[in-house]
TrEMBL record:
Residues 232-307 form the Cation efflux protein cytoplasmic domain. GO terms for biological process: intracellular zinc ion homeostasis. InterPro entries: Cation_efflux, Cation_efflux_CTD, Cation_efflux_CTD_sf, Cation_efflux_TM, Cation_efflux_TMD_sf, CDF_Transporter. The keyword Cell membrane applies. It is a multi-pass membrane protein. It comes from Nonomuraea pusilla. This is Cation diffusion facilitator family transporter. GO terms for molecular function: cadmium ion transmembrane transporter activity; ferrous iron transmembrane transporter activity; zinc efflux antiporter activity. Gene3D superfamilies: Cation efflux protein transmembrane domain, Cation efflux protein, cytoplasmic domain. Residues 1-21, 306-330 are annotated as: Disordered.
Length: 330
């Protein structure tokens, strides 16, 4: 009997098999995106490399190197997605989903390096303009570079948002920066064809500024994930779901956090203090069930059940000095 009471009023965890399968499918989708985008960007870089040899364009060489680097960002992300599929163990009790956030940091650093290289090349060409051969071919290669990168960017960002992967979204933003660099090459080639060689470095500087804005967005995305930030609308939705469970009188603290591209929840609900242990347990299980199935991308929930009443009773008096940090945030 004591064991039953303890179980009813301590955290209870439920991990839906369907949600686990969904999480594995999300990782599989992420790996497919990385494989497809890797092939597209490697083909794009190969086409550009051939034209670099024919034209001697330093700008196109830089763009080709950027595309190659962008393709290689698939490597840390693929490792992260593969690690995320591993089961939790006694050392990594929440699993390996955080590997995606580490990959996101690497991607943000690559975007920063891309911005620095683009700015450096633009300033160098501004101080020492380079003659460009076959500007028509260079322009065609620039269009190919932009098209390849923009397609990959849209693909990565769309799937990244669908599966909740901040790292994949950041990688899509990185691809977009390389597409901007390709546009700089295109405009530079147009300037060279019109007899305005300084057009290339000037546009390159403007594109560097655009890359910095993309860097800001990607860094903010990864920073929020590292700091366990979630959309407040998700917290509101979780509270509504819990409040709608029969037997729940009030909703206490609701905490959500991303681990990789899956959400985890820790919540408190209050039930009638006269409710039986068996009934209180059933309410907790139903609350978990509703959360896991109604809150998008939530893989697991831990529900703590507290008695509501009698008036004046403090069931956590012994913990009062330890629970200040756990106050509910409105």
């Amino acid at each position: 009997m004591l064991a039953a009471v303890t179980h009813a009023f301590t955290p209870h965890s439920h991990d839906s098999a369907g949600k686990t399968d969904s999480a594995l499918e999300s990782s599989s989708r992420g790996l497919r995106v990385l494989a497809v985008s890797f092939v597209v960007l490697m083909v794009t870089a190969a086409v550009q490399a051939v034209i670099v040899v024919a034209s001697g364009s330093v700008a196109l060489l830089g763009d080709t190197l950027h595309n190659l680097a962008d393709a290689l960002t698939a490597v840390p992300l693929a490792i992260a997605f593969s690690l995320g599929r591993r089961a939790a163990n006694r050392r990594f009790t929440y699993g390996y989903g955080r590997a995606e956030d580490l990959a996101g940091i690497a991607i943000v650093l690559l975007i920063a390096v891309s911005a620095a290289l683009a700015g450096y090349e633009a300033v160098t060409r501004l101080l020492d303009p380079q003659e460009m051969r076959n500007p028509g071919w260079v322009a065609a290669a620039a269009v190919a570079g932009f098209a390849g990168n923009e397609w990959v960017a849209r693909y990565r960002i769309r799937v990244g948002r669908e599966i909740g992967s901040a790292a994949l979204v950041a990688d899509g933003l990185h691809a977009r920066t390389d597409g901007f660099t390709s546009l700089a090459v295109l405009l530079g080639a147009g300037g060279a064809a019109l007899g305005v060689p300084l057009a290339d470095p000037v546009v390159g500087l403007l594109i560097t500024v655009a890359i910095c804005f993309v860097l800001r967005d990607a860094a903010r995305e990864i920073y929020h994930r590292l700091m366990d930030a979630v959309d407040p609308a998700l917290v509101d939705a979780a509270e509504r779901i819990l409040a709608g469970v029969e037997g729940v009188r009030r909703v206490g603290t609701v905490r959500l956090r991303w681990i990789g591209h899956a959400l985890h929840a820790e919540v408190e609900i209050l039930v009638d203090h006269g409710m039986s242990v068996v009934r209180a347990h059933a309410v907790a299980v139903e609350a978990e069930h509703r959360l896991i199935h109604d809150l998008p991308r939530l893989r697991a929930a831990t529900v703590h059940t507290d008695p509501d009443g009698p008036d004046g009773a403090d069931h956590h008096e012994a913990l009062a000095g330890h629970r200040m940090a756990g106050r509910r945030i409105r």
